[in-house]
Design goal:
The complex is a heterotrimer. By secondary structure, chain A is of the alpha/beta class. Chain A is built from 28 helices and 35 strands. Chain A folds into four domains: 2-96, Ubiquitin-like (UB roll), CATH 3.10.20; 283-342 and 540-746, Rossmann fold (3-Layer(aba) Sandwich); 352-532, 3-Layer(aba) Sandwich (Dimethylsulfoxide Reductase, domain 2), CATH 3.40.228; 803-898, Beta Barrel (Barwin-like endoglucanases). The longest helix of chain A has 16 residues, at 477-492. In chain C, the strands form two sheets. In chain C, strands 6-5-9-7-8 form a five-stranded mixed β-sheet, with helices on both faces. In chain C, strands 3-2-1-4 form a four-stranded parallel β-sheet, with helices on both faces. In chain C, 41% of the residues lie in helices and 12% in strands. The chains are: A alpha/beta, B alpha+beta, C alpha/beta. Chains in contact: A-B, A-C, B-C. Chains A and C meet through strand 4, helix 2 and helix 15 of A and helix 14, helix 15 and helix 16 of C. Bound molecules: flavin mononucleotide, iron/sulfur cluster and FE2/S2 (inorganic) cluster.
Chain lengths: 899, 159, 423
């Protein structure tokens, strides 16, 4: 700790930080642009100027940039000094000299850091009377809108996109006051994290194009804390609605999870909520025809199917909340509750949970992955399956070189200097996957092989780390060299992390990752990070559901009358034939938010709410249970799934769900019923929670309130809806100040209308949210016990003539069921393909784009060949969730021929 | 398409540095020597050779004054517009050149012979006004001298 | 008088080849040093000679070298870079040596590199110096052939590779950290200091960047000793200096004279005074980014301390003379336009302040000056004062403006349009 004096007041600060960070941490207002807590300081904008004095006797002082000055013990500065004040106003005036002053038509207006800083510096009258330069804008694809004239040249966009996120196709062009930020030519920004430009850009150059299509000012959005529904990482989001439509997703800071950033799937994948595939009314299927009916009619019909006598099973869903799944489980009984995951995935999730709850390993948060100094990725294309994990790994590779640079006594925040010193050095990152990944470019070394060979590599690394681990025989010379290199790097590291998951569908790979983590030892260090397919895969895994395959077996065996399918399109889980058999031989009741194929085939279908229209809990890959809150009241007869289940039960005269009338009730019951969830109900701010006796408003105090939008229907102002299920209110009334961290509905503070107001919500800038980051970890390793090694090591992959091992390839845009239908995301999704190595293509005699036929699960699929030089020979990759190839458990062997 | 010679020279330059990227300005100059300017197509080819994105390379290319990203004429006239030359009569020379060539600063004559560009100090301030045409430096300019110089470029045979 | 820098130049402007250079004692210093002196000895000699940087900032050269990490644990490779970018308007001194005697630079570089134990060197030459490029290339080949460069120089065990790099044109490439970025194939934005290049420079390794003229002094110093070098000077710092004059003087040019020669002597004796019909009004003593001096300052000695005491900087030591028939405001506008154009665009005051400054000046000249314009200009000079911008370009740009406003204020005031219809 050090003491600094700001305008003669002493403050206790961290000398490893700079003056700007520390002033902001102490709640002092100091304007800035080029600095960002995640990007560090470069001293370009010169906005954060303060006066610094040598000592008490120094009266003159000199202007310094707070962001470039360490918070050294005894430092004396003044923010209020006349010269400093004038200088800061002068900088704004300069920045504005080329700015178009188009706030009224700018999407950033009302949440613009430039507006805030302009007001903060007191620059009111424009002294500049000459012409302004103008730029041509670019088409940057479906996500980001570009309006270069608003640029104030803070360089944050390139520093974020290129230096932080590893993007290649955005840069700074030209010089002097013509500096231009954009692409080399028009085209979609390729980086998977481009959406963060919206929040990184302090003005309206990069804005959310999907928001633009149904634009609403920030202060008119109804917003609630949410959790991303598109992969297993569970990034925290703020979802905003107006007039019954979800309008945008913003990042919700959680120091342990997503920090300042989201991936583009998470940010732009919300379109499904407003989509035309939404189910808004119950439907009945009669004589092969589906028709909309009232809720009452649908319930009446279902009552017959769920009656006491009938044999009912429930199929849950990894994309439904813990509460909804538990409601179904309670209704049908735990022996009749099936996970609904694809059988392979289901098995892997169970396996991963088993490992993480065993001994010798601990799973890190994303934040901990960021600070890892050596990373081994086994089998997982994280950019596609768990995008933000890839962003975290991109930071991790900077750890080792940064540590070296810091020996030159360059402070951690001094990004300008660190960059020059570190140059292009990267810390150890090893990636072993069947095909090339986007992270490869950041890797020290990549290893290509079939899943079994990836696993063998892992097992061998474990052996190299610990001689008591079982050996792997028959490795090639290159493999042995790679193993030595990897083991060496992991051993040398202080905080090594192994990353794997269900992505390539291989149990051996998961086991191998666990083996490496165990061999690394050091109990208590977070060293094993798994990912799964969906947002609540791990939550569902903790519910100990029965295997999906058995559900189909029971139906086939005639042991089931009725199947209740919760938010699950079964066609994505098992083969078409199985689903059709089930639909034919049992009464199927589907509850879902969209009209999936399963819904279309179900006898009765009920419309449930999406994540934005309901409330619930999901458990991410770290085992962190996180609550998402309802954003708005949906149109039509849409209700939360658990609510429909309650009504179904009641209509059928069943008592299982009696008394479980809210998410709180369900969670409480869950905490009692399933040990893994013990303690969670008490940690969640339930419906009765109040701050100072008040609810937390979803609308800002500045919301426009009454509008004429429904005047054609009714001129009376409708009563605002009530929310009995959460501590949030659907109005602007309520606790006017900062709520507890899990209930943050928006980032705003007086004078800080932009997302940069986040500084005011953190205990210290860049650290945890005040009061702690939301979420509760449910998965911890057993305290002590020996790590047991498995010796089930697969033999090396052998290709057989004319046959391929078909592996799943994931796509950030397209593989996730829900986001894939969002129009912006759909535009970025690839079409179907069969990826194979040029070598195999030659053997088959196919050219790029020509069709090949593969046989899987008894079905024949014709797909255009995609020549991929990074593909392992003998392996063929197909895109997950894209095209007609669904519900096939991969990897699988298949014959393949040219069509 | 870059010629084999250009590719070889670029690779040879890259070998002088730790990272191939460090040779990118050289590479741009090599291509410009051959084609007078760097087109988008060429830019992409160079970028690929040096393992850079087109954006990263264009970011560098557009920073420097003497990498031309638009076509220029056969002869580029760089007229010094800095202080000493300005004192010594730069503006008169500029007017004369503009009239003589029928172009504004930054433009190319319709016959494609000359592009007229203003340029920062040429480092020959004791003998201003000065200009360069191609690789040749001309100093102590006056209107007659300018005419004579341009004539030489117009009719190279007569020189 | 000894003229270590230019004494051997051939009068017809042709270049000294290796043989000619050796005939006048070239590479003697190198032989002597490699045989008899340790790097520490050389450092001491150069420090004792009180050689200061000739690139504009005037930092003591020996002191700069002493910051380079030495010994077995020092990072490698270390680099030495000759700054031959010379783009400061009004400056044309390095060109003289680069074209006339490149071996003087090369020998100086080998010696300097030896002192800091650098193994890699670059001559960063501005694009416009085509003739110099040709001659340096030839000289490098000669030096390699003769074993002065390359592996195991003269059997000493010391190796040094030297490469010519030509830039693509930008004033910022002359700023030493911008130069490093340019050498790395990046935009020539300046870098943050600390860390200083001596510790972390080119490719993150210890690097010394030195002006051509500075480096050219090294061989003569080591051949003749620090005392001799101190004796050349008429000031507390050692050596001679290349001085020059441009503008409406009778005989513009560049001369090597003792450091500390007075302005008057250079102007009157060397440049032979003003041309017929022109009167002296003032001058920029050392390139475009130095403060104006006026008649009262003619007896100021052109050394680091004296020019500073007079309120300006020695800079590059090449003067630009303002006469009575040249518009002061026009001259300042020309300068500010140059700086605005050459701003790298990294920091706000410079990027946006310089174009604005230029436009106000242009407005004044076009009869659109308004009350408040001069105050605005003064404010700009404060906004872009030292420390307020990221590098020294903008503060340099403000020097001629602030001093013009001080010495020639009436010229500006005359241009303010006070008529009410002006708005
Ligand atoms: C904008 C700017 C341009 C510069 N241009 C040059 C130049 O062209 N040549 C030069 O030697 N120094 C130039 N300098 C000074 C260098 O930054 C550096 O101080 C010098 O090369 C150090 O060498 P010295 O100590 O031998 O003078 C420039 C400085 C600035 C701020
Ligand atoms: S003062 Fe700023 S903008 Fe100007 S050249 Fe230096 S860093 Fe670039
Ligand atoms: S000002 Fe023109 S050559 Fe220097």
């Amino acid at each position: 700790m050090a003491t600094i004096y700001v305008d003669d007041r002493p403050y206790e600060v961290d000398p490893a930080k700079n003056l700007l960070e520390e002033c902001l941490s102490k709640g002092l207002d100091l304007p800035y642009f080029c600095w960002h807590p995640a990007l560090g300081s470069v001293g370009a904008c010169r906005q954060c100027a303060v006066k610094q004095y040598r000592d008490e006797n120094d009266q003159r002082g000199r202007i310094v940039m707070a962001c470039m000055t360490p918070a050294m013990d005894g430092a004396r500065i003044s923010i209020r000094d006349k010269d400093a004040v004038q200088f800061r106003a002068g900088i704004i005036e300069l920045l504005m000299s080329n700015h178009p002053h188009d706030c009224p038509v700018c999407d950033e207006g009302g949440e613009c850091h430039l507006q805030d800083m302009t007001v903060m510096t007191g620059h009111n009258y424009r002294g500049y009377r000459f012409g302004k330069r103008t730029f041509t804008n670019q088409q940057l694809g479906p996500f980001i809108n570009h309006e270069m004239n608003r640029c104030i040249t803070c360089y944050r966009c390139v520093r974020y996109y290129r230096d932080y996120a590893g993007g290649k196709d955005l840069d700074a062009f030209a010089s002097h006051n013509h500096v231009y930020f954009g692409r080399h030519e028009d085209g979609a920004l390729e980086n998977e994290f481009s959406g963060n430009l919206v929040e990184i850009c302090p003005t309206g150059v990069f804005t959310d194009k999907t928001l633009k299509q149904h634009y609403t000012r920030k202060w008119d959005l109804q917003t609630a804390p949410s959790v991303c529904a598109h992969c297993s990482l569970g990034c925290n989001t703020i979802a905003g609605e107006r007039y019954g439509q979800l309008r945008r997703i913003l990042n919700r800071y959680n120091a342990q999870v997503n920090g300042y950033f989201l991936c583009d799937r998470g940010r732009f994948g919300y379109g499904f909520v407003n989509g035309d595939r939404r189910l808004r009314q119950p439907r009945l299927l009669q004589d092969g025809e589906s028709r909309p009916v009232s809720g009452a009619e649908a319930l009446k019909r279902t009552a017959l199917l769920l009656g006491r006598q009938s044999r009912v099973i429930g199929i849950g869903s990894p994309r439904a909340s813990v509460e909804a799944n538990f409601a179904l489980r309670t209704l049908v009984g735990s022996r009749n509750f099936f996970s609904g995951m694809a059988p392979g995935e289901e098995h892997l999730v169970a396996r991963m949970l088993h490992v993480l709850r065993g001994a010798g390993v601990r799973t890190p948060s994303l934040c901990e992955v960021e600070s890892a100094d050596a990373v081994l990725v086994l089998g997982e294309d994280v950019t596609q399956t768990a995008p933000l994990l890839a962003l975290a790994i991109r930071q991790a590779v900077k750890q080792a070189p940064r540590r070296q640079a810091m020996q030159l006594r360059i402070p951690r925040w001094d990004d300008a200097a660190l960059n020059e010193v570190m140059q292009q050095q990267k810390g150890p990152l090893y990636i072993a996957t069947p095909a090339g990944t986007r992270l490869d470019e950041a890797a020290t070394q990549c290893f290509r092989g079939a899943p079994d060979d990836v696993a063998r590599l892992g097992f061998a690394v474990a052996r190299a780390l610990d001689a008591t681990a079982p050996p792997v025989r028959g490795l090639s010379r290159e493999e042995r060299a790679a193993v030595q290199a990897i083991a060496g790097a992991l051993r040398k590291a202080e905080r090594p992390v192994v990353v794997s998951g269900s992505g390539c569908g291989s149990e051996a790979v998961v086991d191998a990752a666990a083996q490496v983590a165990r061999a690394l030892g050091g109990a208590g260090t977070a060293n094993l990070c798994f990912t799964a397919a969906e947002c609540n895969s791990f939550g569902l895994g903790l519910l100990n559901a029965m295997g999906t395959a058995e559900a189909f077996q029971r139906v086939a065996d005639g042991l089931v009358d009725t199947v209740v399918v919760l938010e699950n399109d079964l066609y994505r889980r098992v083969g078409r034939a199985s689903v059709e058999a089930m639909l034919a031989s049992a009464h199927v009741v589907a509850i879902d938010h969209s009209a999936t194929d399963t819904v279309a085939g179900a006898e009765v279908a009920f419309p449930s709410g999406t994540f934005a229209e309901t409330e619930g809990t999901m458990v991410n890959n770290e085992g962190r249970a996180q609550r998402f809150y309802q954003v708005f009241v949906p149109q039509g007869e849409v209700k939360p799934a658990w609510s429909w289940l309650g009504e179904l039960a009641q209509a059928a005269g069943r008592t299982e769900l009696t008394g479980l009338r809210s998410p709180d009730d369900l969670l409480a019951a869950l905490g009692r019923a399933v040990a893994a969830f013990e303690g969670l109900p008490e940690r969640v701010a339930g419906a009765s929670f109040r701050v100072n006796g008040e609810k937390v408003p979803r609308l800002s105090p500045r919301a426009s309130g009454r509008t004429a939008v429904s005047a054609n229907v009714n001129v009376h102002e409708p009563k605002p809806p009530e929310d009995p299920d959460s501590p949030l209110a659907f109005t602007m009334e309520g606790y006017p100040q900062q709520p507890p961290s899990p209930l943050i509905t928006r980032f705003w503070a007086p004078g800080w209308n932009s997302v940069q107001s986040l500084n005011k919500f953190q205990a210290e800038v860049g650290g945890a949210l005040a009061g702690g980051d939301p979420g509760m970890r449910l998965i911890e390793p057993v305290a002590n016990g020996a790590a047991a090694y498995t010796d089930e090591i697969p033999p090396a992959f052998r290709r057989r003539a004319g046959e391929f091992l078909v592996v799943p390839l994931h796509h950030i845009f397209g593989s996730d069921e829900q986001s894939a239908v969002a129009p912006a995301v759909a535009q970025r999704s690839p079409g179907p393909y069969a990826a194979l190595s040029p070598e195999d293509a030659q053997t088959l005699g196919v050219q790029d784009g020509e069709f090949v036929e593969i046989e899987l699960d008894g079905g024949m699929f014709q797909l255009p060949a995609l020549l991929m030089s990074s593909m392992t020979v003998g392996v063929l990759g197909v895109p997950v969730g894209i095209g007609s190839l669904r519900g096939v458990d991969l990897p699988a062997r298949s014959r393949c021929r040219r069509v | 398409m870059l010629t084999q010679d250009e590719r070889n020279r670029i690779r040879a330059e890259a070998a002088h540095y730790d990272h191939p990227q460090a040779a990118c300005v050289e590479a741009l100059k090599i291509v410009q020597e051959h084609h007078r300017w760097v087109s988008d197509e060429h830019l992409k080819e160079i970028a690929a050779l040096l393992d850079m994105s087109p954006e990263a390379l264009d970011s560098v290319a557009t920073f420097y004054n003497l990498i031309f990203r638009k076509p220029v004429g056969e002869n580029v006239i760089l007229l010094c517009d800095s202080v000493s030359c300005w004192i010594m009569g730069y503006e008169g020379i500029r007017a004369h050149l503009k009239e003589h060539l029928g172009v504004e600063l930054g433009e190319t004559t319709s016959d494609g012979k000359f592009t007229l560009l203003p340029m920062a100090c040429l480092g020959t301030c004791d003998r201003g006004p000065a200009m360069m045409v191609g690789n040749e430096l001309y100093r102590n300019l006056d209107n007659d001298k300018v005419d004579e110089i341009l004539a030489r470029y117009r009719h190279p045979s007569g020189a | 008088m000894d003229k270590p820098l230019t004494g051997d130049l051939l009068p017809d402007g042709s270049v000294l080849d290796l043989a000619a250079y050796e005939r006048v004692g070239g590479y003697e210093a190198l032989r002597k040093v490699l045989k008899e002196m340790t790097p520490a000895d050389v450092l001491k000699e150069v420090t004792d000679s009180r050689l200061r940087g000739r690139g504009g900032a005037g930092f003591p050269t020996g002191q700069k070298w002493s910051f380079v990490p030495m010994g077995d644990n020092a990072p490698t490779p270390k680099y030495l870079v000759a700054n031959a970018d010379e783009m400061e308007p009004g400056t044309f001194k390095d060109r003289l040596i680069l074209e006339g005697n490149p071996h003087l630079l090369i020998e100086g570089m080998i010696l300097s590199a030896y002192t800091i134990q650098a193994t890699q060197g670059y001559i960063f030459l501005r694009w416009a110096y085509k003739l110099a490029a040709e001659r340096i290339t030839r000289a490098l080949a000669e030096a390699y052939d003769k074993g002065y460069l390359g592996k195991n120089i003269l059997g000493s065990g010391y190796s040094f590779e030297l490469h010519l790099h030509t830039s693509a044109g930008r004033y910022m490439c002359g700023e030493e950290t911008g130069l490093l970025n340019a050498l790395e194939g990046k935009r020539a934005n300046p870098r943050a200091k600390p860390p200083f290049p001596q510790v972390s420079g080119l490719f993150g390794k210890p690097t010394i960047v030195q002006n051509v003229e500075t480096l050219c002094n090294v061989a003569p110093i080591l051949r003749n000793g620090a005392q001799w070098y101190l004796g050349l000077s008429r000031s507390e710092d050692g050596g001679t200096k290349l001085y020059g004059v441009s503008g409406k003087v009778r005989r513009p040019g560049v001369w090597e004279l003792p450091l500390g020669t007075t302005i008057r002597e250079i102007l009157e004796r060397r440049a032979r005074g003003m041309r017929e019909g022109y009167k002296f009004r003032g001058l920029l003593p050392g390139g475009a980014s130095t403060d104006f001096l006026v008649e009262d300052h003619l007896d100021v000695k052109m050394d680091y301390g004296s020019v500073q005491a007079a309120g300006s900087r020695l800079g590059t030591g090449l003067m630009v003379v303002l006469d009575d028939q040249t518009s002061v405001v026009g001259m300042v506008l020309n300068l500010e336009r140059f700086f605005a154009q050459e701003s790298c665009g990294w920091c706000t005051p410079c990027r946006d302040g310089l174009p604005w400054t230029a436009r106000i000046l242009q407005g004044l000249l076009e009869g659109r000056g308004r009350p408040g314009d001069l105050e605005r200009l003064e404010m700009q000079t404060r906004m872009m004062g030292p420390g307020n911008t990221f590098c020294a370009l903008a503060p340099g740009a403000m020097e001629p403006l602030q001093s013009a406003l001080k010495y020639f204020r009436e010229d500006f005031e005359k241009l303010i349009n006070t008529r009410s219809d002006a708005a």
